[in-house]
Structures are given as C-alpha cells and as structure tokens.
Amino acid sequence: MKKLVEMLNISKSFGDVRANDNVNLDLCEGEIHGIVGGNGAGKSTLMKILFGLLKPDSGKIKINGEEKRFNSTQDAINEKIGMVHQDFVLVDTLSALDNIILGREPVKFGFIKREDVKDEVIRLIKKYGLNFNPDDMVNKLTLGEQQRIELIKILMQDAKIIILDEPTASLTVSEVDALFNILKKLKDSKKSILFISHKLPEVIEISDRISIMRQGKIYTTINKNEANVEKLTELMTGEELKLEDSFYLFSGKEPVFKLENVKLKKNREVYLNISLEVKEGEILGVVGIEGNGQKELEGILSGFIKPDGGKIFFKGQCKRNISPEWLKESKISIIPSRKIEDGLVEDFTVYENCILGRIDEKKFSKFGLLQKKIIVKEAEKLIDEFNIEPYNPYIRVKYLSGGNQQKVILARELSKNPEFLIACNPTRGVDIKSTFFIRNRLLKLKEKGAGILLITSDIDEAFSITSRIAVLYRGRITGVFNTRETDEREIGFMMLGGEKRKAG
Q1: Domain map of the chain by residue range?
Q2: 480-489 contacts, C-beta under 8 A, 24 or more apart
Q3: For domain 241-331+418-504, which architecture applies?
Q4: 260-292, pLDDT tens digit by residue?
Q5: Cβ distance 135 to 96 under 8 Å?
Q6: What does pTM read for this prediction?
Q7: How many CB atoms lie within 10 A of CB 341?
Q8: Which comes out higher in pLDDT, residue 218 or 458?
C-alpha cells in the first residue's frame, strides 16, 4: 500500500521528560491505523506534531514521499491533514451550519454566501452517512452529532489524513456503531485515519493495523488479525491485568444511601427529579450522556448545590440537603469528576494532597501544630499501597500523570474508610493500567460492605464493575437494570431516550 504519511525518528522533550523518543510511524492510503498506549506514552505529543501544534526537536515528516515542515496547524491543513479533538470546538448557541462556516465564511459582494456552503454540507452528509440537520442548534444535538460537525469541518477543507483523538470517549454504543460506519465510508474514499483510543475492543474492531506506544516509543505494530484485548493490554503495560470477577454480587439488602424525589429547578421548572438507592456492599452505576443531569447530581451529592425538594437518607438518617461538613462526619467519600478543580490542589505536594479533608485528625497535629514527619509517613504508606508514581511525597501533584493524580484522590478518599463512596467518572482520561487498578480498589471497598454510587458516561465502566445500572435521561432515572440481565445496546438505547423493554 502507498505510504501517505511517514514520521521518521521523531523526538520531542519537555525539560527532562522525553515525550517522543525516535518514533517511526507510517500511515497508508485508505487505512485506519490505531494508536494505543498508557497516559504519558507519547500518543498526544506525536499527533500534535503531525498536526503542527508542536515542533519536533528532531526527525522528519514526509507526506506522499516529500519532506514537510509544519510551523503551524495551517501548514498541516494545507497538506490535507485534519484533526478532531476529544473536546469539540463548537458554539452551543449557533446552528450546526454556522459552526461549520465560522471563521471561514464565504463572501460574495460583501455578503455571506451560505447557500453554497449548505449545499456542500448536505452533499457530504449524504455521501458519508453523517445524519444530522445543519439547521439544528448545536445545544440540541447529541455528542455523536456534534462530532459529525467536527468531521464535516475538516472534510470541507478536503482533508485526506484524519486524526481522531479518543473519538468514542463519551458516545453510546449506537453512536459508536454510526461513527464506525462513517469511518468505513471515509476509508473506502481513500481517506487515511489515525485512531487514538483507550478502548481496546473498539480499536481492534475498526483498525487495520495497531501501533502500541510505551515510554515515548513505538513498542511494536501488529495487524488486526493478530490483536486481542489481552495481548494489547500486555504489550501496553508489560503485564497481564485482570478485574475481580465478583462484581455482580452484593452482600447486603439494606440501603446504605437513598435519594427520594430529590429535585432541582431551572427557571421554575423541575429539571432534575431523582429517586434511587444503593445497598450495602454494592456498586450502583448511574449512566447517561453528558448534559442529562450528572453534573447537577454530583453537585447535590457533594454539598455544593442545594436541592429544591426531596429527601436524602444515609443509614436511615434523613437530610433535606447535604453539606461538605456532614459528608465528612458521616464517613462518605467523593471522587469528583474534575480531579484538578475539585479533587486536588495542583501546586500542593503529594503529601499535602493526601491529607486534604483529614487535617484535623489527631495523629496529624500536636498542640495545634501539624506534624510534617507523620503526614509524610502517611503519604509514603499511601504512595506504596496505591502504586503512585513517582515514589516521591514531595513532588507537586501537577507534575503527575492523570492516572497518578487520580490515584492520589483515590488513596486519600479510601484512607478515610468510607461506608459510602460517590465516584464520578473515576477513570476518565486514565491509562489502562491505572484504570484496572482503580476499578479493583472500588471492588475491594465493595467487598468490605461499603456502598458505592458510580456516576459515569462510560458504559464499559458501568458493565465492568457494577451490580446494577440506572439510566439518567433528562434529569430522571428512566430504568434500573441488573447488570447481568442487560447489555450495552439496551443501556445505550435508554441513554438516548428509548423506553425500557417490557417483560415477556
């Protein structure tokens, strides 16, 4: 096959950290090439170099056999390279069409010639099965539809080389199916695609070849027919990773935590109205597409948003609303969805972050003074127990990888010996090794009898460790399922507003 892209001996360092180390990668015409690797493996840096966002320290890039130098993203775009980022660059209050032409409006005699652009957009929608209405407002579209707008934007620039960064991170099963159908049509049109993802089954399904990155290098590249999840996991991490296999069992019948018609209003209308219960020794997953009330539910459970009605029960004790102080007194821990903003102080050291919320424990102070040696010793114990890397309690947490930052939060919250844990997207943006570690720690906590509420937009995560799954759609729980008695397709259907199947 004709090589469309060749990245030869690419190296890039940030200070003492070598993000890319003599990387060699090629992409053939009409190929989907998967790129996998842990956080910090160098995937993002390599793709940013190809798209002109970063300059390599050394190495060459060839497009169609000719050496190219990219000083900006425009240089890459001029060579028919386009990139769809994980976080879309869209204006919610504009239509899909307005977003497509934003910043590059075609002008004729001083007026915007929208009709020509709309005709081209409709042609591309039909050609590739993109299936959205260009006149719809972006804030009314699903994440899958918003992603298709980003694809149209780069196709309008006649991109031949498409970089997709975690394209399925927040999509439902049916939206992933739709995306893969689009990618196959793009491939049939001789477009070439670099597909970066943590979701190994999806990488195997869609890719022709898969490159595994470790420590800034391409460790190996294998063909699709050689790949399976176990092999990729071992190639990425150097070890075999497994989850506990008792995720569907739960030890208690009594609810440890319960929400009863907990409401939140917007503009005098009830936006959120939730009832659910979590039993002792179970993990209940709450899944939903982002924007259906997860953020507000997390805010209520964290004590930062006061509900407009309903009751909250913990071990039979009724509350009208939650405060951070009450959570602390009640042995309830939280892993927030925004780890830097809500879970850590990034300019604090690891040892300082390890005792946030625990600072008034007697063992950490004497005569009103903090005992640094004791605090550091506690941090070292947690670093060892939770495999936080590097092993350095004095390093500022902002210098840790995303997976290790999340482990600091997990270590701190579980060290409080909680009877109930609220975990919000605990493995988002985390590499596969850290993902397995975090999920196994949650399973161990469950086995001790604690109840866990897992709020996630990742269906795979819910099916990995929960006993039951509740679907959140437009601020309501629309169905609760035993995990072993449902599947990803049914849950995905419910997440999009479908009705729960009838028994029989």
Answers
A1: 3-237, 241-331+418-504, 341-417
A2: 480/276, 482/248, 483/247, 483/248, 483/285, 484/248, 488/173, 488/459, 488/460, 488/463, 489/173, 489/174
A3: 3-Layer(aba) Sandwich (3.40)
A4: 999 998 877 888 999 999 999 999 999 998 788
A5: yes
A6: 0.74
A7: 9
A8: 218
